[in-house]
## 1
Amino acid sequence: VVVGAGFGGIAAVRALRRAPVEVILVDRQNYHLFSPLLYQVAAALLDPSAIAQPVRALLRRIRNARMWMAEVTHVDLERKVLSTRQGEIEYDYLLLAAGSVTNYFGNQSAAELALPLKGLPDALAVRNRILTNFEQARWTDDTVERRRLLTVAIVGGGPTGVEFAGSLSELVRNVLRKDFPGMDLGEVRVLLLEAGDSLLTAFAPRLRRAAEGALRRKGVEIRYRALVQQVAPESLELASGERMAVGAVVWTAGVRAPQLGAGLGLPVDRAGAVQVEPTLQLPGHPEVFVVGDMAALEQDGRRLPMLAPVAQQEARRAARNIVALEGGRPPQPFRYFDKGIMAAIGRNSGLAQVGPFGLSGFIGWAGWLFVHLLLIVSLRNRLFVFLGWTWDYLFLDRPVRLILRASQKARPEKFHHDGGDVEH
Amino acid sequence: VVVGAGFGGIAAVRALRRAPVEVILVDRQNYHLFSPLLYQVAAALLDPSAIAQPVRALLRRIRNARMWMAEVTHVDLERKVLSTRQGEIEYDYLLLAAGSVTNYFGNQSAAELALPLKGLPDALAVRNRILTNFEQARWTDDTVERRRLLTVAIVGGGPTGVEFAGSLSELVRNVLRKDFPGMDLGEVRVLLLEAGDSLLTAFAPRLRRAAEGALRRKGVEIRYRALVQQVAPESLELASGERMAVGAVVWTAGVRAPQLGAGLGLPVDRAGAVQVEPTLQLPGHPEVFVVGDMAALEQDGRRLPMLAPVAQQEARRAARNIVALEGGRPPQPFRYFDKGIMAAIGRNSGLAQVGPFGLSGFIGWAGWLFVHLLLIVSLRNRLFVFLGWTWDYLFLDRPVRLILRASQKARPEKFHHDGGDVEH
């Protein structure tokens, strides 16, 4: 049984396709999400369907795999049973790849009022909120209130925060400016609040400075050492005591492993991730593997980052180890091969870092576009993402700027798809 | 002031683009919906953004028009003021084109539990519900319960009901069958419940029979004289006393004008539409025009149908009449020019009726495709609809089959976008 249809789960199912095993994939959504482009849905650049792929479509040609849509609530390691809201599933081997959830670092007000940016429902909520605020600002004669509505605070200067800030600023400057004739761009603020001293700490200092420069040129206001203390419905307060009136708080400050890991009663690290053996096995339970954001593993003295390539490579190693165990051979330890990291900061500006080499500016951006197009799972989504990007690039237009939400009339109770978050 | 950004409202704004007037367009959504293809969103064939166009994008090149997003609550005819949830707007001329809402014909249980198919939020709710039911059926060992989950009852044999039934049946037979290996197609039922004796009463008898045949070949179960009496959470009851267990009830039985019309305190017809002069003016209020589904107007002894071309032609006439009044000339009566009606029943089967001529089968379908592609407002949406159709036709695949809903965390209160319905 594989839990989670993210990068790890899908890689594991694929790696097991020719193995003499029956695979059950469990996820609470019916789609696999290409999460690196999630912020582009929030910025009204892409349709949700361009970055989501029905899991059942991915499994069609994998004969030994089936999908069961369910939300996993508990793992009984002794009985080897997975409990879900829909029923129980027995397993011989278990591969946990449930990813991560938004981390509010214990900030209750943020958990209640800030908008996370982790799943598709979150991205649509962010899009709806920001577009609605612009519409509402149109009705306001009060300058202070209008400025508040037109202020978006993005909390966290990691890749998601930086990429979203760049893309949002372009949505405002290139698209919404033409939608709202007479709007004073000086009243719009895109704030990027970073608690530390620098953005994108995973990148080399030169690339960080390039990112900072690109964001500032796009009109993003960057604040360092800006730790958010309290989020209120119409404002937020920093640890320094400074208050700012805001129309939306988008929380990209961090992620943590889901409760499921801690619920196993096993050692977890600060982010709630499960300490695993170098073979990705759960200590004391060789039939249980944990990969991706849920797994805490060190390599060369450093915690492996929460990245899609780590999850995919771990999942493939875990799959091979399951096959090895079945064949009576010993499992092998995991070794991460780092292909580099990338980030895009709106049009014509991106970063790429491969080992000691770094690219920035237009070349970094072109590389980012190319690599991400290649990484998208299906031909159809590759085509639709490419069309979306081309449209935006050529016409400075984002036709997906809809304020839209599925009606909730008489929804069945048993499945929960509201909010990408498990914790609030 | 123009109320409603549907076919009528947009046609009016365009017709007034060179007139010496200032136009304010009011709508509670920020997009114009190409509603004839709405059922294809519910059937997971098209993305919402393929049939929705941001109103502000449509108004960009119309210099004398502005958009104010708001939900209209009341019209004060004496003071010439429009009240909305967001504030008041004064008008010199008012053009009401607010369309229609789902008509439950006083059936309270249907209003509470049936899923309408009128706006995009409705279509997404239908899509989510049906896909969720299929996932849930996967978990059920009880045959009776599984059959219930796999039964969809579509109420109403008009164009929406017929077109949705055809498209839904194809979703099940061509796409979901491959998604759910081992699923017994015999357990899936698509029911079309029509209270009268025939489907598509606007079409000639020969075409109606063609539609019926096409639906039956696609596996749709048609029931005539099946008046729905009561809708319960897991079943429905017909006037005949027959009960059927259902997983979803999709209500396409009729539409009625919104409360707004009746709220004016003026004569309305059975469907709540406002009786207007032949010039589309409100009796006693020559500065107020009513067009589209909201207006009740007879021509040659018959009530004009609630169709997009009627709304568009009426809106253009109303716009010209406003210009005439401003120039001191008398307004002209409206005359509808009927270009014909069409319907599509899934792949390779469609109907078209132009005056005495009728087409059915493949040629009717090809004509339907062609005409609808031409009618779509923007180049981008035309391209995306065409791509969606092509994908479905060639690969028998609908990649938009996502169970997805925007998160509702901390949503602002003032705007309401839940459900296309005003009444529940």
## 2
Amino acid sequence: MYSGNIFSLVRPSMNALDIFMQAQVEQFEPEIRSMAKYCLETSGKRLRPTLVFITGWQESGHVVGDLVRLAGVIEMVHLATLVHDDIMDHAEIRRNRRTASREFGPDAAVLLGDTLFCQALHIASHFPTTEVCRMVSESTRRVCAGEIMQTMRRRDMEITLADYQRVIDLKTAELFRISCLMGAMIGGQNAGFTEAANDFGRHLGIAYQMYDDLVDFLGEEKSVGKTLGTDLATGKLTLPLMCLLEKLSGQERNELLSAMREGRDLPLAVSVERMKVLGIASEVARSIDDELAKARSALTGHESCAPVELMRGLTDLLQTQVQDLNVKGTDD
Amino acid sequence: MYSGNIFSLVRPSMNALDIFMQAQVEQFEPEIRSMAKYCLETSGKRLRPTLVFITGWQESGHVVGDLVRLAGVIEMVHLATLVHDDIMDHAEIRRNRRTASREFGPDAAVLLGDTLFCQALHIASHFPTTEVCRMVSESTRRVCAGEIMQTMRRRDMEITLADYQRVIDLKTAELFRISCLMGAMIGGQNAGFTEAANDFGRHLGIAYQMYDDLVDFLGEEKSVGKTLGTDLATGKLTLPLMCLLEKLSGQERNELLSAMREGRDLPLAVSVERMKVLGIASEVARSIDDELAKARSALTGHESCAPVELMRGLTDLLQTQVQDLNVKGTDD
């Protein structure tokens, strides 16, 4: 299992991406350059570029210029969605610094996000064919559609598991999916593996969003009564909350639902103790494991392709992180 | 001079565009389709499509599918910018119905505008080469950059004429310019005319924005003290206001400036009577005429190209509209 050194393997490509992103700042109009720079300089986890570099991986380990450019396109789309998300969530801080919305005001942030989307598509248009543009523009539309569904149903407690799955499939799994599909494509992998990478990316994306929702939920629970978790505070119905609601008695359930609907402080039903007893974290972990199993099984039969071991390593990494959380959520 | 029948000449293309735009609704995710439909169903003036059809005009008068698609791309980008503009301006009504921001809330409107941008670029990616994507994504970034500059300097009364020109060059002239450039290109016109069409579009766009600012300003002045003009209310420094400020005495000037800075009701300096005496409308009309003259002169030497007479007809139409306004502004 690679796990430990996946990130050192892709580091040369990631360094090239840093240089590429810095150079992009110059492409913006001089008057908005410093604002664009602010948005591009986030020290994010760069998950999507990692997927591009891994699925496009060849034994040689050379930095491939086209993969760097593709990673830049997808990361810039992702950063644009973050700029717009933070407006909606009234988020003040992301990754230890002020959000663009807080720094420049929500109005400028709307337009700034737009310029990032445009520039991402502009880079995409420099590939020799229209394929990258076509896929990225369609995926981005799907990401935004997922965000719209989520936004329109805030504080709507009638959401089903199917609704939740549809939203995360669009808002998160979509960019994971095309990162893997196009990474493989541009990296020159064979057609069968490219298709497998597409499915892998989608399931990994779903698993990752469930993990992210669990982090938000458990992270919160530690300081219940002080600050609400972003998702709880903004009335988003996520998987851990759905699991909790299912396990509560009728009265507790109603109390929690009406507190969320009205944006009030949450009742004691959402407490560290109750989570442990009810085993919420382990239930969500099981759903995540299911998705990771699907991601892994998409790779079956493609073991001879260079990226497969790295891709499996990524699923192992996520699984370990979920286990760590789960321990925290049950025995902390 | 064509003027009168320009619009009947392009009507078959415009009808094809209507059908094309309606069909686009199906491309959006089912859950957001009705919202996308709402945004696409605006009964706007369709100026940019008109420019596409006119500059791509051939003697045959046939409806050209690629021109319809190009017009659809540019109109959809324009509609997306309107959705985002209306959030910023807190506009409730546009073209006699509620804005998307008012109808679905500002958060959903941010994302809805994003999906329109994405879909526009997605259509653009269906041309055989990446050229349309490349031009449209770059232009759209420039439009948004212009809007950012305007947004960041609201209620900033230090703006110079050069700043104003730069903003309208980006936020308005840019899409006029590429409508003409790409209309000519996709319409199969010769290279010399295509370049001329580019310059024509830019100057026509600048002239149009000045006209639009004058309409906002004079339209307002009629009901001064009741509702403020959008531009005045949102503290945008436009050409007519700059002309007014230049002609006012020191004290009146300061009163007006501080009222605008603080978003208070405007002093009497902005009244119908004062406009007449000061001749604001005719001064702005002179600037518009200068731009229209530049637009016309870009066409010199290309008289043998089919669109030239129609393009001149468009400048004549705008000039007539400005004269009508000017009469209203001085002798009403």
